[in-house]
Amino acid sequence: MANQTGYPKIVTWLFAWIAILALTSQCSSAARGGVSGDELRRPLNDIRKAIYVTMQGKVKRKSENNRTYFSTFHRPGQDLRLTAYKQPERAQLAITILGDRRPYKVAVVYKIDKLSGGEYRFDRYDKSLARQYLDKVEKYLASRPEERDIIDDFRAY
Q1: How far is 64 from 70, CA to CA, in rounded Å?
Q2: In the chain, which residue ranges form alpha helices assigned H by DSSP?
Q3: Could you point out which of 11, 63, 139, 140 has its C-alpha 20 to 30 Å from the C-alpha of 39?
Q4: Residues 44/136, Cβ–Cβ less than 8 Å
Q5: d(Cα 96, Cα 35) in Å, to the nearest integer?
C-alpha cells in the first residue's frame, strides 16, 4: 500500500481552519445586533434590579445562570406594556450581564420580528433602541448611591 501520510494531515488542517472560521463568524454576527456599556463596579444585585426597572417588570424569562433577561414580546418602541398580539411587527429586549466578577458589563440586544405567512420571522436589530435601554440601566445605577458590599469586595483567595 502507498504511503499517504501527508494527505490526511492536509484534510485535517483544512477542516480545522474551516471550523474555526465558521465559529468566529457566528460570534461576530451575534455581537453586531446589540450594544454594550462601560464596565460597572456595582454589585450584581444592583445591576439585576436596574434591569428589572428598565424592563418595567416585564421579564418573560431568565437564563439558567440569571445573567440574561428577556422581555415579553411587545410593539417596537419604548413601551414594553403594549401587546404584540396580531401586530405586523413584534420586538423583544434582551439584556445580558457579562463577566464573572466585578467589573461587570451590560449588553443589550433589541430584536424585531415581522409577521410573514402567519408566523413571526426575524427582521432586524435596532441598535438605537438598544442604546436607549442601556442608557436607562446606566441612569438608574447612577441615581442610586453606591454601597460597599463586604462579600464582593473581600476575596480570601
Answers
A1: 12
A2: 6-32, 44-54, 127-143, 150-153
A3: 63
A4: no
A5: 10
The set of cell numbers assigned to 92 is 423583544
pLDDT (0 to 100) of residue 149: 55
| Cα–Cα distance for residue pair 151/44, rounded to 1 Å | 11
CA-to-CA distance for 34 and 23, rounded, in angstroms? Answer: 19
H or E element that contains 123:
strand 119-125
- Examine the pLDDT at 12 and tell me if it is beyond 80: no
Grid cell, residue 111, equals 430584536
List, for residues 40-53, the tens digit of each pLDDT value.
989 999 999 999 99
Q: Is 24 left (phi over 0), alpha (psi -120 to 50) or beta?
A: alpha
Q: Is 7 exposed, middle or buried (0-12, 13-18, 19+ CB in 10 A)?
A: exposed
Residues 157, 148: Cα–Cα separation, whole Å: 19
Secondary structure letter of residue 76 according to DSSP: S
Q: What is the pLDDT of residue 112?
A: 96
pLDDT band at 121 (very low <50, low <70, confident <90, very high): very high
Q: What pLDDT, on the 0 to 100 scale, is given for residue 25?
A: 45
DSSP 114: E
Q: Are 114 and 121 in contact (CB under 8 A)?
A: yes
